[in-house]
C-alpha cells in the first residue's frame, strides 16, 4: 500500500520543481529542440550561475529568508572589476585582484545591509529587495559621477567627452572574458566518467571503513557503473563528444570553486558558528536566552553571503558569452533570478541545501532556454522567452512567500486544535 | 559552607514612584525545595528579575537590599552572570528549539568543540563540534533526570511533558549549578508527568541543589516543598515550614484581604435558579497570546452580574475577547437562545452585545478623536444610529446631545465633548469607553479590567454605574477583573479561571481560602470550607 499522505506532502513540497520540469519538457517537444545544443547552453549557464545561487544558503539557514541584497555583493564585485580593468590587469590575475577587492567591499556592504535587516526583523525578504534597489541608485551615482570626477580613471574606461564610466566595458582584449572558465576545459563525457569512478571509490572505501551498509555500498557502486555505461553508449555519447556538433565541455576550475563552496556550506554548519546560524534561524528567542548574540550572528550570515555573491558575480561576468561588462545593469536581476532558482529547486524561505540550489539553477535555466528556443521556433521571436523568465521568477517567489505564510497558518491551526484536545 | 545557599535580604524595588517590592527577605538552604507563592503583582517575578540581574532592573535604577550566595555578598549584573554564578532557570515557556536534537538543545551555545588551524587563526566560532562528547554529556544529564529518550531525538517530536525534562537536563548539565528556579513548571504537564517532575525535583534537591518553586498549585506545594514563602502586594507575608501549615491556610494567606470592599452594594441575588440563560458558552477555546482559553463552559443568567476572576495569564481576559471575535476562537456560543457566530465582531455587536476592552488606549478609544465621536462611533458604524435621513450623514446635533448627557451621567471630567480622548486621564478615558458601550444600547455587556490603572474615585463611579445599569435596565454584565475585591463587591457570582478553564464558580462571600484554592486550579464546592 502506498502512503498517500507521503505522496501529497512530496507534491506540495516540490510542486514548483515538478511544474518547471513539465513545462521544460513541453517546450522541448513543442519546439522540436536539438538536445545537444540545449545541453551545451545549459552547462554554460549552470556553471555561470551556480556560485551565486549557493551564496543564498547561509542567510536562509539563519532565518533571514532569501537575501535579495546579494545584488549589492554583485555591485561590489563590479567595482572591483572596474578597478582591475582600470589598472590594465589582464586574465586570471585581473579576476583575482577584483576578487581581493570584493572581499573587504562586500564585507562592508554586507555589514551595512545586516544592520538594516536587524532593524526590520520578519521583513528581511522584502527589506533586502528594497535595499538592493536603493543601492542601485547609489551605484549609479558612483559610476556616473564620482568615478572620473573625484576618483581619477583611465580614459579608456570613461565615456568619451564626458565623465563617468562607459556603458559597456570590453573584457575580450584584456583577457578577462573566460579568464577562469578558459583555464581548464574538460570534455563533459570525461567528467561523467570521473564522477562515476569517484562514486565507485567512495562506495568501496566507505564500505571497507564500515561507515555504510553493504546494501548502500552496492547501490552506490551499481548506480555509478550504470551511469558510466549509459554514457559509453554511442547514441548518448555522440550527443556530447562533438561527433554531431561542437563538443560539450565543463569549465574545470569554475566547478572546483563551485564544489569548494558546497563543501564550505556543509562544513560551516558543523562548526560552533554554524550551530548558531541554525539556532538563530529556528528561534531567536531561544538563541537569545542561551546567550547567543542574535544580531551579530545575523550580521555574519549576511556578510558571508554578500562576499560570496560578489565572487559569484565575477565568475558570472567572466563567463558571459558577450565578453563585455554592461556596467549599469549587469547586477540588476542577480538577486531575483538567484532567489527564484533556489526556490525552484525545492528550497523554502526557511530551508535550503546545496542540492536544492544546484537542482534549482539547472531547472530554472533549462526552463528559460527551452522557452526561448521553442518561442523562436514557433513564433520566430525569442523575446517571449525573456518575458517568460521575468514573469515566472516573480511568480515563483510569490508562491514561495504564500506557501511560507500558509505553512505558518497550518501550524497555528494545529496548535489551536491541540489546545482543545489538551 | 554557609547555612544558606542564597539570601536575599531586605530587598526593595521602586518602579518610578511605585513600590513593587517592600523589604522582602528570602533565604534558601542548600538542597531544599522552597515554594514562592503570591497572586499576580505580588512581586514574585520582580524578585526573580532581581536574582537574575535582568536588564529591566538595572535600567530602572537598580534595587535596595543585599544578595548573598554561600554567605558572601554578590552583585549579579546580568542573566549570563547569574548563570556563571550557578543559578539556573527552568522556563515556563520552553526555551528549546524544536528542530534541534535533544543533545543540541542541551548543549546550545555551550558546545564541546575541537580546534583546528583555521579556528586558531580566525576564532573559536569556527571550531568543529565534537558530537560524540556532546552526546555523552547529554546522556548523563538525561539519565540524572531519569528520562528514557534518545539523545538524538528531535525535540519538536517529543510530547510536551518531555520537553520540560529536556530543559531540566540542560540546566543540570551546566557545571556548578547550585540553585534552580522552576517557574510554573507543571502548568503544561499532565498529572502523571507533574508527579514525575516532582520526584525529579526531589531527586535534584537531594543532591544538594536548592530549588525555588514558583507555582499556583497548592497541592504540589504541599507535596514537594520544605519551606514556603508567601508574598502579597510586594510585601513578605510570612515564611512557613510545610509541617506547620495547610493548603487552606496558604490560600487564605495569598488572598488575605478579608473584607475591605471597594464599594458596598446591597441586594445581591442568585439568578441561577429559574431564570433564563443570556449567554451559553460551550467548549470555547481562544487563541489570545498570553491569555489562552482552553475549553470554557459557562452559563450567564439574564439580569445578573457575573465576575470572571483568576490570576493573570490563565485565560480570563481571553473569554470576552474570544466571544466578541477580537481573537481567533472556536466552540459554540448562544446569546439569548440564538447561536452566535464566532470570529465576527460586527455580528456580535449587532446582536446586542458590547464590550469595554481591557486595552483602553489600543482597542477601546480612538485617541486622536473627540470624546463625542468616540462615544458615537461604534453605534454609528454598526447600528446606523446618529445619522440623519435620507442620506445617512453624521447627525452632529444628536451626537452632541447624547455626549453631553453621558458626560453628566458618568461625571467625565473634561473641557467639553470636543476634547480629544487621548488627553483625558485614565479614569475619564475609561468612562468614555463605558459611554461608548452604552451608546450601543446593549442587552449584554462585557467589561474587561474596568478599573485597571485608574484612581479610586473613578473606580467607584465606574463600578456603581455598572450596578445601576444592571438594577435599573436589567442589563446583564460580565465583569472580568484581576482585582478580586472589586469582583466580590459588585458581583452576584464569581467564576474563577485557571489554566484556561473555569475552576470553580463561587459566591462573593465565599472565604479567602476558597478563592485561593480555586485560583490554584482546584474545584471548590461551597460548604467544603464554610
Task: Offer a concise description of the structure.
Chain A has 422 residues and is an all-alpha fold.
Descriptive report:
The complex is a heterodimer of chains A (422) and B (530). With 422 residues, chain A is mostly helical. Chain A has one domain. In chain A, 73% of the residues lie in helices and 3% in strands. Chain A is built from 16 helices and four strands. A two-stranded antiparallel ribbon of chain A has the order 1-4. In chain A, strands 2-3 form a two-stranded antiparallel sheet. In chain A, helix 4 (70-86) packs antiparallel against helix 5 (91-119), helix 7 runs antiparallel to helix 8 (214-232) and helix 15 (354-379) packs across helix 16 (383-421). The model of chain A has no long low-confidence stretch (mean pLDDT 88). The mean pLDDT of chain B is 86. Chain B is of the alpha/beta class and 530 residues long. Chain B has a six-stranded mixed sheet with strand order 6-9-10-3-11-12. In chain B, strands 18-21-22-15-23-24 form a six-stranded mixed sheet. The radius of gyration of chain B is 27 Å and the shape is elongated. Chain B folds into three domains: 1-86 and 210-256, Rossmann fold, CATH 3.40.50; 262-352 and 442-530, Rossmann fold, CATH 3.40.50.300; 365-441, no CATH class. Chain B is built from 19 helices and 24 strands. In chain B, 34% of the residues lie in helices and 24% in strands. Chain A binds chain B through residues 267, 270-273, 275-276, 278-279, 282-283, 285-287, 289-292, 412, 415-416, 419-420, 422, and chain B through 79-80, 83, 91, 95-100, 104, 108-111, 113, 119, 124-129, 283, 285, 287, 292, 294-295, 328, 330, 500.
